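Something for you to look into today, if you have time. Could you write out one complete protein record for me, on any chain you like? Leave the record below and I will have a look.
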Amino acid sequence: MKTSENGLNLIKQFEGFRSQCYLDAVQKPTIGYGTLIDTKEEQYLKTKVINESEATQLLSYDLAKYEKVVDDLVTVDLTQNQFDALCVFVYNIGLGNFKSSTMLKLINQKKFTEAANEFSRWNKAGGKVLAGLTRRRQAEKDLFIKS
């Protein structure tokens, strides 16, 4: 599966667009729509100014990795909305966190209602509850349970 426009727009809404490098909530260098800058690109991207089109390209490139992870780790059929919500979620929390999550275990047991309730547990960054993450998790949950 591929993330639909709904999923892409949800990421853009919550990540917001930044044309220059900034430090995210856990102090990682980031650019565009929440694209983490790895150490190989760091010096280049820390000084670069990008436009929204370039940011969308970076987002699409990164998102392909997360789509593959969701496809590989989820062993049951998902609706488009469930897939989108999970890709948006994994884009934010990372692959390792999703792989070891209770949410993934519940999804693979087809316990979708219980899995949806797991979104709200992921509202912290650096150990602190963030209002923006609380809103994001609710939006991801709403998309996940939407028929």
